[in-house]
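Page 42, continued from yesterday. The earlier attempt failed because a stray header line got pasted into the input along with the sequence. Redoing it now with the clean sequence only.
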Amino acid sequence: METRRCQSTFFATRNGLAGVGMPGVRAGDQVTIWFGAPVPFIVRECEDDDTYKLVGAAYVAGIMEGQMVDELYCEDLADAITLLVK
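This time it went through. C-alpha cells are written below.
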C-alpha cells in the first residue's frame, strides 16, 4: 500500500484573496480563470518567449465554480485573453 503526503502552498493575491495551490507556487505566478473550468489555474510566465507554464490547479476562496466569471460579467469587466501554455 502506497501512502502519499498531500502538500499544498498557501498564497494570497494582490487583491487580498486567499488560496491553496501546488507546492511549486511562488511570488509572481498568476491566478487565471479558464472559461468552462470548475477551478482556477496558476500559470507562470516563461522568460524565453511569450508563453506560460501551467503550475497547476488551485483553490481560491470566492472564485470557484464560475463565481468570479459571473461577477465580472454582471459588472461588465470581463476581458478574454489567450494564453499560450506549455
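Notes: The two ends are 34 Å apart (CA to CA).
Reminder to self: strip header lines before submitting.
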